[in-house]
Design a protein that fits this description.
single chain; alpha+beta; Jelly Rolls; 7-stranded antiparallel sheet; 4 helices; 12 strands; 17% helix
């Protein structure tokens, strides 16, 4: 069953579209505890206009869905739920710079591909495709620049949390930073579970 929050996000997203194209950035890569997953950490620590960003690195789990899985949506939904990050909505990524101040956000690409800008209006651009997962620390800006017609992500958060929504607004920066400072560290990684992934890279 679809929740009211899913409907509201979908209806809102129907009003928003954006298109652009920029090359994939390169950055450090480390291996997760799962042999088929490579995790790419991206450091986005500097404030950009009204986007606070975060000292914690954004993590991109490349091909978190194994080739043997017949349905990426089912696989990611089950994986996230098992690790305490239940899916709350399915759609695309907002095509304007935004962030969340009260929780970290998990985006699992269940189909299609997209180009996404991270860290604010001057931030790097990455391409994500079916099977990839992005773990976005609270405060880190993100927006969809362009996408295939079938692009869809699963949006998930630590159990019991739902995201607020902040725009690139310098007048709200101090308020958002206070919220971010109070966020507790999640106890499980949404992809690798009780070890590796975020539990290693964020503590480092």
């Amino acid at each position: 069953m679809t929740s009211p929050s899913q409907f509201s996000r979908r209806n809102f997203c129907h009003l928003l579209l954006a298109a652009s194209a920029m090359p994939l950035t390169s950055y450090a890569q480390s291996q997760s505890t799962s042999p088929h997953i490579a995790i790419q950490p991206l450091s986005l620590t500097k404030v950009v206009n009204g986007v606070p960003n975060d000292k914690l690195p954004l993590l991109i789990y490349q091909q978190a869905v194994p080739a043997s899985a017949s349905n990426a949506d089912d696989y990611l939904s089950d994986l996230f739920a098992k690790n305490g990050w239940p899916v709350q909505w399915r759609y695309q990524i907002f095509p304007f710079t935004h962030y969340h101040s009260n929780t970290h956000e998990l985006l699992g690409v269940s189909q299609g591909s997209a180009k996404v800008q991270l860290g604010g209006e001057t931030g790097p651009t990455v391409r994500v495709k079916q099977g990839d997962v992005i773990l976005i620390p609270a405060g880190v800006g993100h927006k969809q620049l362009s996408a295939s017609e079938d692009f869809q992500v699963l949006g998930a958060y630590p159990q019991g949390l739902s995201p607020d929504l902040y725009h690139d607004d310098p007048s709200k920066l101090a308020e958002a930073q206070r919220h971010i400072a109070n966020i507790a560290m999640p106890t499980t990684d949404p992809v690798t579970g009780k070890q590796g992934g975020m539990l290693t890279l964020w503590k480092a």
